[in-house]
Design a protein that fits this description.
Elements lengths: L2 E5 L4 E2 L2 E2 L1 H13 L4 E3 L12 H15 L14 H13 L5 E4 L8 H13 L5 E5 L1 H4 L5 H10 L3 E6 L4 H11 L4 E4 L5 H6 L4 E2 L8 H12 L3 H10 L1 H6 L7 H9 L16 H13 L5
Parallel strand pairs: 1-4, 1-9, 5-6, 6-7, 7-8, 8-9
Antiparallel strand pairs: 2-3
Helix pairs in contact: 1-2, 2-3, 4-6, 9-10, 12-13
Length: 291
Amino acid sequence: MRGSIVPVVTPFRNGSLDLDGLAGLVDWQIRSGSHGVSVQGTTGEPGSLSLEERKEVIRAAAAAVDGRVPFVPGSASANHEESIELSRFAQAHGADALLFIAPYYSRPGQEGIYRHFDALAKCVDLPVILYNIPGRTAVNIEIDTVARLKEANDNLIGVKESNKDFEHINRLLHRMGRDFLVYSGIELLCYPILAIGGAGFVSATGNLMPVEVARLYDLVQEGKWLEARELHYHMMTLNDAVFMEINPVPVKTALGMMGKISPEVRLPLAPLSDRNREKLRGILADYGLIR
């Protein structure tokens, strides 16, 4: 469960799920060397989907993965009972592990976070990975809470950290041990997290350049740190472009320009601005992703 686990977008066409498009993206990711596939993280717009649509996405993605790489769907939301239902569904439909985002909007304290995750971890017989993204959820999963959850749940194997506080991530690995799987959810921290013992990354940029993002991990595994460092800097402009507006709007726009899917997003997200669209087009051309 290490390496580049790509958070694949959820394609829409004329307002409906484009499950054929999703299957095509998943297959492309695997053929391009991605080490794992995730759906229904932030990049997958889970908040814009109904519970039944989220199940459809999990079912379709699992079928497309077909056991070729680890499949790690996001199965949690701000609604506790819905999170339990979706987690059990994902286990029954081919998930290899589950990704649990911190509860958003309600802004629970650490005790509420603990009880929520503890119940979710105990409702399935799969490895679970917590997803800490304070910039979206307005809550931080504190290290003491992670340690407490690990002590109570043997199936808690790691955390996806989309926390820009690199000191926090260092202290997390120090407290939990280097066998605990910590993944970067911040594109510019993918290389640094590998350097301190991280397990890999869940990078939105992998949607656009899966070969290169997977190669970053592979180079480190081969001990080619200088080549990995140069690749890290080579990817920086695209990493920044992916977040020129709220994720996943730029990613889906880019995939549309590349001819992979329709670039549709659902309200309340809006299409990329005309100014940023032209800027993005130039960046994609510079990287050889479009002509």
